[in-house]
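Appendix B, Record 12. Input sequence as logged:
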Amino acid sequence: MKTLGKEVLFLPIGEGNPRNGEGSFLRLKDGSILFSYTEYYGDNYADHATARISACISTDEGESWGKPFVLIEKDADAENYMSSSLVRLPDGNLGVFYLRNTVTKEGKVSCVPFFCSSADEGKTFSAPIAVFARDGFYCGVNDSAIVTRGGRVILAASMCNNPNCEYHVEGEPAPYIGHDLHFAYSDDSGKTWHEDMPVVASPYNDPVGMQEPGIYEYENGDLWVYARTGYGFQYEARSTDGGKTFSTPRPNFFFTSPEAPMRVKRLGDYTLAVFNPNAYQPMRKATELWNTPKRTPLLCAVSTDDGRSFDTTDYVSANGAYRGFRDRLFLIEDDESESYCYPEMIEVEGGFLVGYYHSASTPMCLAATKIKKITWTELNAALGIS
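Logged structural output:
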């Protein structure tokens, strides 16, 4: 299996900057590329430590990058802003989602997705608004919002129902212990938000449930939602009616996975899925600091049919092996002494960029950020396409 791409940016950690990651790309109107990411500052790298949304810009299709700058500073009452998702809104403005973390009087963490927009390409932003009406602990992972072909903006997030989770409202029922998938959408470029899409409930009564979802729109408008679990696979649900109903969640047997998110996007002629292939292997002892399987290596799967070949619902494999899927895999990172996670992607001239967390020779997978550029020429060569 070939390892593709070249490094075009590395955002290292250092004193006073213990973590950089969870990024998102957007093409600006002047043709440059904006890359936003969570910049932790201080001496703590925990999820709820001090952080803001910073960014840098490339004017040459990702070959080089300007000096990082603060895109959105956290407000005084927030612990941090993190996990940004950039979108081009139907009204032409730039839209950005992020998680706002605060601490309640009882010491519980509230983590809620917020949204704001910019009419001047990120120089100034509108007043932020909460995407979900209810307070709670939501995981809306980076680069996860989509704008459908019909102009609907959708954010998928998981919400924790566990009384022992970082946040839980006392006295309210917790029908599932882990995370369920919730959706918010806007039909007016983010001015108002609605939550009447159905909740996709985890099939398991465990502390993890289904977390950090992504969402992909097929060319015919069908929706594919996928999420990390504690069961060694990405789990998924599908909608054939634009999100009015979803199928029962089930594992996707192509996408073995530790407790780490996947990202799927249509770029150029392909649908690409970036994920970690090593799940709960009994003989594999390498783990992250919190004793879950190490997030390594980093793979990209390629579909030439709008992602339909990624569906294992009714799949019958040839000779008992997923040979077709295997033949359309390549490595983004192959050094299994390092960890990689929380990917983001964008198409550029002649190829695409993929960014992700890089452990940077530390025991912490949530450390530095790396961006690679992969050309269509090298990808086609790896796939045997002339």
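The chain has a mean pLDDT of 92.
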